[in-house]
Amino acid sequence: MEASALRPARRGRRRTRAAGSLLSRAAVLLFISAFLVRVPSSVGHLVQLPRGFRLTKDSVKIVGSTSFPVKVYVMLHQKSPHVLCVTQGLRNAELIDPSFQWHGPKGKIVSVENHTAQITSTGSLVFQNFEESMSGIYTCFLEYKPTVEEIVKRLQLKYAIYAYREPHYYYQFTARYHAAPCNSIYNISFEKKLIQILSKLLLDLSCEISLLKSECHHVKMQRAGLQNELFFTFSVSSLDTEKGPKPCTDHNCEPSKRLFKAKNLIERFFNQQVEILGRRAEQLPVIYYIEGTLQMVWINRCFPGYGMNVQKHPKCPECCVICSPGSYNPRDGIHCLQCNSSLVYGAKTCL
Length: 351
Description:
It is found in: Cytoplasmic vesicle, Secretory vesicle, Acrosome; Secreted. This protein has 351 residues and is an alpha+beta fold. Helices cover 16% and strands 34% of the residues.
């Protein structure tokens, strides 16, 4: 998790006024700021492979080894690459009367039409819709003759096939506002209005604003005395492109691109509040953004049952790979934790 904060807070002048139209004035400033920020028309290109996956021309066809199990990574609910029942040396060789037989975690695999696991006529194993429960060790038994005259040769090739998911990454923001008295209903109304405006601002990006915490505190200032301040903490995460309020259906849907655009829009939104306040000839409203207090943190998390491990999965270092037996992830952490009693893939508890 890497954090990047904006410039240290520079507090502007604070002037109070009578409670009359506290919320309305503050809301007007927010609406003006939101109106001035335009959502860009393009937000990038969607790719299915994770950012850390090293793509090569052979990535969609994976060959085996007689020396060690070959690791294969399949995105959850997606089609797998072709897992070949040959070694690199035999890939382009002529095989006489080849025979292929696959065994998985649940026993012998028989290719059935429309089944999630299929075996092609050349012995390749392909998954159409990979599920967590399909993770495990797969073995192919190959029999063939190098030539018609030679005797039958037999090979046993093992593959460790893992489900993986993209990390659940999001931005977490904190910001402070000069506030009405902490027991005032205007603070509550303003909080709701702020979240509504931010949500509308990001609507076209299929991103979601979630208010994590809102607190009012008394802050003693060196010259201004005791002040009331609202401390907001909210997160910005990308929605599934097919489930958002305005579903993203074209190629401009990559979550990381949309989140980056959302971050820029939010920063501009708060900066414009400062600019608008600076041009005001009137007194400041009671509720207003305190310049320089917006801070942002980028957070990476894996879903329960998944974790990152660059030593174990060097070809997929930024993937959230399903936890192997002997490990588990009970919450939105980054790594799978050791658990000797765990006997399944994707464990979320250690019994």
